[in-house]
Each structure stands twice: as structure tokens, then as C-alpha cells.
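2024-03-11 09:14:02 INFO queue: dequeued item 3-dehydroquinate dehydratase, len=139
2024-03-11 09:14:02 INFO validating residues
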Amino acid sequence: MKIIIINGPNLNLLGKREPEIYGSKTFESYFEELQLKFEKVQMFYFQSNIEGEIIDKLHEVGFSYDGIVLNAAAYTHTSVGIGDAVKGIETKVIEVHISNVHAREEFRQQSYISPNAGGVLFGFGLKGYDLAIESFLLS
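2024-03-11 09:14:37 INFO prediction written
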């Protein structure tokens, strides 16, 4: 099984940015833990602060991978383009958010990805990525 995690803007700052919301662990160290936990899964990671690069990556992997875990971060609430890219590919996408977006600012409650995602996880911290990967293994 081949799964990619795609993270959007500012998630490269995990461990430094607002640790009270996002925790103190870097995503790179967490990704190493995921690889050990799911050792039978070919797992890849991509992060970009650039909307078009995220769309390009979805197009690149969206017809050949078994699963995509997508945390588009702030682009979730603004990017019709990323939403359309998710709609246009064949690979199932699970949308993940570290924080409970519905307990935050009102604008964060809108998602252009959710209508086309196979599932949505939010508010579980980094554990949401584990849950998303497990969902692919169960399906």
C-alpha cells in the first residue's frame, strides 16, 4: 500500500508555531514515528506553502497511490482549486486537521475539500494522521 501525506502552509512550523494548539513535536519527527508504526505501508510526505504545488502533487499522485492524507491547512478554507483537484482525482483523500476547526474562528469552519473527501478528521491532534492511515488499511 502506498500512501502520501500532503501538508499545506505553515505546517512546516509544527513544533514552533502555537504549541498550545499544534503541539511541540515537529512533523518530521512525527512522520518517522508513523513510518515505524505502519512499516508495511510505503509512506511519503510532501509539504508546501504554495497552493499550486499542492495541486500539482495531488495531480501527480491522485491516480497511482492507494491513499492521500491531506491537511491543506489555511488553504482548506480558501482554495477552490485544491477542492477541485481533490474532486478530479481517483485516489481517496482523507482530510485531516490537527485542531478542532469548529471550535476556532468562524472562517475555519468552511472547507472546500470536505465535499469531495472520503472522510474528515479534526481535533485529534497529530493522532488524526494515524486514524486516516488506519482508515485506508481497513477499507
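2024-03-11 09:14:37 INFO annotate: The mean pLDDT is 93.
2024-03-11 09:14:38 INFO item closed
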